[in-house]
Amino acid sequence: MTNNETGWGAEEFAEAELGDVRLNSRLICLCSRFSETPESPINQACKNWAETKAAYRFFKNKNVAAEAVFSVHWRKTVDRIKGHNAILALQDTSYLVYTSHGATTGLGSISLKKGKNIDRIYSKGLILHTCLGVTTDGLPLGLLDQQIFARELRNKEAGKARPNDILPIEEKESYRWLTALKNANKGIKATKVITVCDREADFYDLFREAQDLSAPILVRASTNRPINRRSRYTNKDTAKLWEYMTEQSAIGTWEVAIAKRGKTKHNNPRDCRVATVEVKLGNFLLNPPRNHIKHRIEQLPDISMTAVYVREINVPEEEDTVEWMLLTNLKVDSFEDACEKVNWYAMRWKIKMFFKVLKSGFRVEECRLGAAAPDPLFNCHEYRCLATVHANNLSKNLSRIFFF
């Protein structure tokens, strides 16, 4: 075994089965090189020209599937989870932008913007949806799921596109949240896996999937939806979520340290301060949307949920109010339980740091590879493999990079 096969890469990927022992060895070598100089592009991370050529051949090899690379790391992550009573599965989405890679084909359109002289500008790249496993204290354990795909534009020649609200969830891009929820609970028996998501995951199908799987979930609310409806079309004895929770009595107060923040595109600037927040609890029935497409084929159930509402009191002038509305199917009976759920949601910042280090530290968007293969099974094959290797590498070493 060579020197580059004796580090953490050899331990993490010792069980890799890529169909060829040379590919297994090359994977270990690449992980070791990227770990030694994570900020370097492929040609600088490799020690010589022979290693560089071998690395490019590895990513170009259609027999090296990103799923095969990820599965090895996933098994190791599951092993690290054993022995923990509960862990958090942090889900979030990021975008790998490759607009400047003009020669690359097969990339998807991420966003539409207007330029000074051009009305329609699409940024090109890949969508990266990740589920990071951490302990309830925030120690990273590894990835539980990762999906990398290119967004497809609607085909104008096929006629008018179907409205998004009449598409089944399986045909929507948001199905990635359900896939990650299922995969995060796969193969884990003795440990409770609590899925934690931001406001983008606040939709009925995800909560129903969690109920069907008996999987704990904690999501920040985005929609002030009607709740406690007795039937699909009733308007009596119903309430909106925010109004319902505002009427509940506070069960305690809590002091939260607020960091200083400069002005951003979506947020106003703020000074650092200690905010006093009150905590409220409320149980409610989450009703299926009236226009849900599956009403036509089945009886959609109401879902019993609990809301933990945290809102700042005595807000200083010209400061935005601190407010969190968290939805969960977990049992929350006391102020201590509510504070625990708030602390768990605060751990979601770990996956934001994961994406930041992946793009700013590992500079995954700056590595240039060849064009994607035309076979849809290998769409964006090289970039997907590269992103997977980097993500596995980073998640294994997160505790050394930013956990403190």
Taking the sheet with the most strands, its summary is: 10 strands, mixed
Content-based structural category: alpha+beta
SSE pattern, N- to C-terminal: HHHHHEEEEHEHEEEHEEEEHHHH
**What share of residues are in beta strands?**
15-25%
Compute the average pLDDT: 83
The outline comes out as globular
Give helix % range. 25-40%
What is the first-to-last residue Cα distance? 34 Å
| SS element count, helices | 12
Total beta-strand segments: 12
Low-confidence stretches: 1-5, 371-379
Rg:
23 Å
Describe this structure in words.
With 404 residues, this protein is of the alpha+beta class. It has twelve helices and twelve strands. The chain has helices at residues 8-12, 21-36, 42-45, 49-60, 66-81, 175-184, 204-213, 241-246, 335-346, 349-361, 381-396, 398-401; strands at 86-97, 108-113, 121-135, 140-149, 192-197, 217-220, 226-227, 239-240, 250-258, 273-286, 303-312, 323-328. Strands 1, 2, 3, 4, 5, 6, 9, 10, 11 and 12 form a ten-stranded mixed beta sheet that branches. The chain has a two-stranded antiparallel sheet with strand order 7-8. The longest helix is centred in the first third of the chain and has 16 residues, at 21-36. It is globular, with a radius of gyration of 23 Å. It starts with 7 loop residues before the first helix and ends with a helix. Residues 1-5 and 371-379 have low confidence and may be disordered.
